Amino acid sequence: MKIAADRTRCEGHGMCEALLPDIFRVDDEGNVTVLTDQVAEDELDDVRLAVDSCPVEALRLFD
Q: Which key words tag this protein in UniProt (predicted)?
C-alpha cells in the first residue's frame, strides 16, 4: 500500500504526525509530507488509523 497526501486540503492539525512521526511530517506552514512511499504490512493498521484521524481527509491509502 502507498500513502497519498493532498497538501491543498491539509490544514496542519498534525494528527498524522502525532500518531506516526516516522511516516508523516507537518512543517511550520502546516503542510504534510509523507516520508515513505510504501507502507509495511506491520504498519498498515497504524497508518489506517492516522489516515482516518485526519479531520480534513487530506490522506488516503491506495495500491
A: 3Fe-4S, Electron transport, Iron, Iron-sulfur, Metal-binding, Transport
Distances from the Cα of 7 to the Cαs of 12, 47, 57, in angstroms? 9, 17, 11
Give the C-alpha separation, 45 to 52, whole Å.
11
- Report the SS3 class of residue 48: helix
**Looking at 1-63, which runs of residues are DSSP E strands?**
2-5, 24-26, 32-34, 59-62
Condensed to tens digits (0 to 9), the pLDDT of residues 11-63 reads 999 999 999 999 999 999 999 999 998 999 999 999 999 999 999 999 999 99
- What is the pTM (predicted TM-score) of this model? 0.90
Q: Which residues contact 37 (CB under 8 A, 6 or more apart)?
A: 2, 3
On whether the CB atoms of residues 25 and 5 are closer than 8 A, the answer is no
